[in-house]
Each structure stands twice: as structure tokens, then as C-alpha cells.
Amino acid sequence: MVIHFHQPVGNFGFVIEEITDRCYEPFLDTISAFPDIKFNLHYSGSLLEWFKRYRPSIMDKIKALAAKGQIELIGGGFYEPILSALPPEDAKGQIGMLSDFIGKEFNSKASGCWLAERVWQQHLAETFFDAGIRYVMLDEIHLKYAGLKRKDLYGYYLTEENAKTVAVFGADRALRYSIPFMPVEKTIKYFKKIKKDYNANVVSYGDDGEKFGAWPNTYATVYEKKWLRKFLKTLQKNSNWLKTSTISEYMDNNPPSGNIYLPDASYQEMNEWSLPLDALKRLRFLKDQLKGKKSNRIMEEFLRGGVWKNFFVKYPESNHMHKRALLISHRIRELRSKVSGTDISRLNRATKELYKSHCNCAYWHGIFGGIYLYHLRAALYSHLIGSEKILDQIEHKTRRWLKVETSDVDCDGHDEVTVSTKESKFIINPAIGGSITEWDMKIKQVNALNTLARKEEEYHKNLKTCYRKEIYYDTHRRKLFTDCFLEDNVKLSHILSGNYNDTGDFADAAYDIIKAEESKGKVVLSRRSTVNNRPVLLRKIFTIEKQGSSIMVRYSIRNLSSSRLRLNFAPEMNFSLTDDKTREDSRSVDSLVLRDKVEGFNIAITFSSKAKHVFRYPVCTLSQSQEEPEYNYQASCVVPVFDFIIDSLTNKYITIKLAINLL
Length: 663
Prior knowledge:
The chain is α+β, with helices and mostly antiparallel strands. It folds into 4 domains: 2-263, 7-stranded beta/alpha barrel (Alpha-Beta Barrel); 267-304, no CATH class; 315-397; 458-662, Beta-galactosidase, Chain A, domain 5. 33% of the residues lie in helices and 28% in strands. The strands form 4 sheets. Strands 14, 15, 16, 17, 18, 19, 20, 21, 22 and 23 form a 10-stranded antiparallel beta sheet that branches. A hairpin with a 4-residue loop joins β20 and β21 (601-623). It is elongated, with a radius of gyration of 28 Å. The model has no long low-confidence stretch (mean pLDDT 96).
């Protein structure tokens, strides 16, 4: 039995405290009364660090169980990363970090690995071997995908990469759904059935520990109604034929069932969630067609779905964080051979900050939380920026500096322009509207553009009408300086719901990079297209100072047609302000201030000419939770509208300045 316990980097302390009281501690207290029942336990490093700091008594209990030999502690990536999404050096570093922690704190050796979300790629076999890992727990569906039949699942197999081997176990899916939800007697009957039907001598169970008290209604079932105690007592009563063992003990006494090579996969639900929405709908339709047919059970192993990395396509915001982490990792590796003295310890601190940003929870979404949880994304950005800030201290010894780089940051085949100073970092994306997709305030370790677009999710169709009528979807990412052109009489309700027509062709279209001047801190972009079916040249000049956290953009809109042009220019701006509920339509405005009281800063916005309107509203998403659907804040949107009349072959100009100030 492998039980996995984890809390994501950046989760609220009061949440972890409550789960500790309702799940983590009573679980340990209960199993300690049954010393002959063996477990493999996995704790993520982020949770262990919390225990060590706030509840050291939990650490003592784990250590005592390990010393008695009742539990075997399993390793993995320290901050619960998707290991296959990391460079091999970082994957091995994460594994080594948790193995070292387990050795130091619990005097135990981590021979196995809990693979976060069971996301497997074959190259991980070599990674595990190099990191000293002997075995890994996957899901039974991985083995089915490789062609095994039900009777072949009860054992373990060896796989290899470049002649470096690791053992793989497949956790039984039926047990995942029955423990601790079904009566204990039914679970025991299931054990008897597989022993009889398949002559199985071992069955593997692996699942989240939070279902033992933290999931809705499970505390009452598991502890108040004593499900866990009954289960353990029943195991004892049936010990003449049903014994528990740690994985290492089992491997020491039983050979592998054979060799195996596994396709890229996770557990079945994750494979489906990673698909684009249309593909997921088609897969669900096909499965519905097969229900009740004899072929359904056979087809399950061939209807695989997508792969985890598809989330980087499904959610560009996730891709952005991931690629930023890869660039920082590359920068750290380049510095390894160059640093000395105190810079070595700095580089180690930067590496730990990077590892914290790898925590998988905010990179994907299934049906609960994930990337939709603003505070989890904010935590990842905090550690990404924290890592990069340390690297800046190593590389830049001067008080003031400014660096401009042009490269394909997000690996989409188009160059971005990155402007960095001691205090700020801006990533300008010419390919998607010449907009800004990241604005880091390094002193606070905050990305002021930690935003998320409103996307359609497959489960939205199943929500109650009262929820569905509040769901809106975006046509583009929530970024800074998305250039829109509105029709007359557009209202705040139209902007908020996305129910308006953009009469231009600039918002998500590609701009040309005209200049990227490091000496002047200036980036010039340009696009020629149409507004109201009339030719227009739009030019935007970004200027960043070496000192302070501010940016200025000067727009030039040139009417290329032969007649006068009237337009409503609306450069959409999105910011992340922790929790902002302001919803307003201001008239004749040349400045405004946005405040984030939680993070302790404000953003001052000034216009060189008065805006006819400034629409402002919070961007919220609706996603499922374990109980009722929940609204999550994702951004604060500000849309100034400038009413211009431009004569033929002449220009109109508007300058917008943004400045961050600490409260």
C-alpha cells in the first residue's frame, strides 16, 4: 500500500493546518496501533518542510514508524514536479534533494519514487537509475497501454533506458475507487476475487492520502465511523492469506514478472483532461457509444487520450511559466562552471527557488483548482522571480543596469523581446498583439501580469443554469496593451462579457519588431492592417528606465486611407491585484490608481489625453470544486477608450505611462 501526501507550494497555511488535524495526524495515529500492517508512505518535500517548521511532532511520528520498520518512505521530486517536464539535471536534483532529506530527518533510504500525477515518459527510467531509485509506482493503465492483460498486472516489471533499469508497479484502479469509500467487507471480497480469478500473489494500491480525512465527508467515514481502523483490523484477521509488505521487502523476495516498455501516459482521467476541448468531447462521445458493449472493456486500453504536456498548449499561461523555468535552469547551468566563493551558495539558493517553481499543481487543470487557483500561480512566479533575482546579483555587480534580449522565450517559433533591469522585467510578445505578457516587480517577487484567460471547460455544460449564465469566455490572453478598436455605444456589460465587435485586426495579430535598443531601453513595434475596413499603420514605442518599475508606451495611429477616419481606440490592460472587485465605467479620465493591499503596491496609470471611458472590471472564472463550483479571481481589466478622428495620411498619438509604487 502506497499512500501519497502532498500540499502545493504556496497553499494557505490555515488550509494545511486543518488538513493536518483532520487527515495527516489521525492517519499516523491510527496506523501506529497496527504495527504489523506495512505501508509505503510518500510525503512531498513542500509538506515535510511545513511539518518541520510548524508541526515537528508529525516528523517525530513518521520517524518512529520508520524506525519500527512499519513504513518505508518513498522519494520523488522534492517539490512534486512533473519530472518528465524538467531538464534531466533538475529532475535528478529534485529527487536527490528529497532522498537526502529523508536520509537526514528519518534515517531512512528512499529506494522508490512516487511519480507526480503518474506522468510517465520512457526517458525517466535512466533518470531514476542515475538518481539511485529502484522502483516507481504507476497506475495499472500504464501496463495495459503496453499490452498487458488483467491477469498480468499482479506483479512488477523492469523497464530500461540505455541499459539503466527501474522496476514499475501498477496501482490497482478498482482499489483507488473503493478505498475508503466502499464497506471494508467489499474490499476484502475484491482481494479474494483477484486471487481466485487471476491467481494473483500481489496487488498494488497507490493513491492520495488526503482521501483519508481531507476530502468532503471522509473525516466522518474514516475516523468518526472508524473505517480505517476496521480495515486494518480486517487485514489482521485475514493475515493467514492476506499480508501487507513494503515494496522493497516484496522485491527482495520476488523476481520481476518480465520486461516492459511503456508509452507516454498518466492515469486515465489525466490523459483525457490534457486533450484540447474539441478532442475531449469527441473522445467522450466515442466512449459513450461503446458503453454497454463487450468491446468497451477491451477498448479502454487503446482509447488513451492525450499527454500531460498538452496542458502547455491548452493553457498558454502554463506554457509561459514552464518555459521561464527552463530558461532559468539553463542560466543556472551556465553559471555553475563560472562562479566561486559566496556566489556558489547564491547559486544553490537560486536553484532551490527554481525547484519550488516546479510544483506541478498550478500548471494544469482537470476538474478541480489547479491553474485556476491564482495564489498557486502567484507562488510559482514568486519563486521564479526570486531565483532570477539571485542570478542577477551574481551577474550584475553594478547598481543600475538594463538588458534587452530578443529570443523565442515561449518556444512558439516567434521571438519575444525581454527587457530586464535590477528592479523589473518585461516580456514583450510581438506575435500576439505586440503585448506584454510578464511584468516582474523584483523587490516584491510579484508578476503584475499573473493573469488567466476565461476558457470553456468540458464540465461547464453540466453546471446548473444559475452558474452557466455567469460564464464568459475570452478570445485572447489576458495581457497588457492588447490593441482593440470598438464600435460606438459599447458598454461595460459588453466589455465584461466579451459581447462586442473589434473593428480592427490588431488584438492578437503579429507585430513587426522595428527596433530593440538596449542603450535607450526602447522597443519599437509596428503593424499595418485595417480598422473599419480602412488601412491603418499602428506603431507602439515601449520605453523602460534603468531605475524604478515603470513603463511608457507611445502609440502612433496613421490613417493610410484617402478619407477621414473615426475610431474608438481601446488598448486593453490586464493586471493581477490578488483580489479586486472593482467594477466601474469612468468618464473623461486621464489617470487612475490600482491598489493591491495584500502585496503592498499600487499601479499608477496616466494618459496623455483624456479617455472618453475607462471600463474596469474583475476577470473571474468558474471551475468545479469538490463541493459547489467556485469563482476565482484571475485579473483586473482596465480598458480606456479614446475617440479619434484622423485625417487622411495623418497620425494621432496617445501615451500611456504605468508606474508601480510600494505602499
